[in-house]
Design brief:
The chain has two helices and ten strands. With 166 residues, the protein is of the alpha+beta class. α1 packs across α2.
């Protein structure tokens, strides 16, 4: 994502069309087209983790500000004026408890089901955001239960001690 220059010439943080949640110490960036189910997946993931007794919260919905941190980590924050807000399609915008930031440990791209390989050669790939390499997986849009399964298996591959979060 491109960054712009502010009035002083400094780069502005990237704001992208995405949502972010945090489960335990893991920030999960949810990217996809409008209507792909990012907000619904964020809500279901947070509730699923909480039902298992784990810390989980919304960080951002719809617009997420990304910045490279001092330790080479990617940090996600909500866009100004959208903090603590989540869209529930067909019901409206709701205020929910949220975190101010998360270190992104996984990027999840929501794609049309026909674009998801049944048996991909590599389940986990990488993407580079703000100069930071981030593990990336693809899930079918608007199928949150199937997405939870794929995210759980990605977690187990990436973070072997993370069993139980999802």
């Amino acid at each position: 994502m491109m960054t712009g220059a502010g009035s002083g010439g400094a780069a502005l943080p990237a704001s992208i069309h995405a949502g972010c949640i945090v489960i335990g110490p893991f920030g999960i960036l949810l990217r996809g087209a409008s209507g792909s189910g990012k907000s619904a997946l964020a809500d279901v993931l947070v509730q699923h983790a909480r039902s298992g007794g784990h810390f989980a919260a919304l960080v951002s919905d719809d617009r997420t500000v990304l910045a490279r941190g001092g330790k080479g980590q990617l940090t996600a924050r909500p866009a100004r004026n959208l903090e603590g807000l989540i869209e529930v399609r067909g019901a409206g915008i709701f205020r929910v408890p949220h975190e101010k930031a998360a270190v992104v440990r996984l990027a999840v791209d929501l794609l049309p089901p026909a674009r998801i390989d049944r048996l991909p050669e590599w389940q986990i790939t990488e993407t580079v955001l703000e100069g930071v390499r981030v593990p990336r997986i693809e899930v079918a849009e608007n199928l949150p239960q199937e997405a939870i399964r794929r995210i759980r298996w990605a977690f187990l591959g990436l973070f072997p001690n993370s069993s139980g979060y999802l």
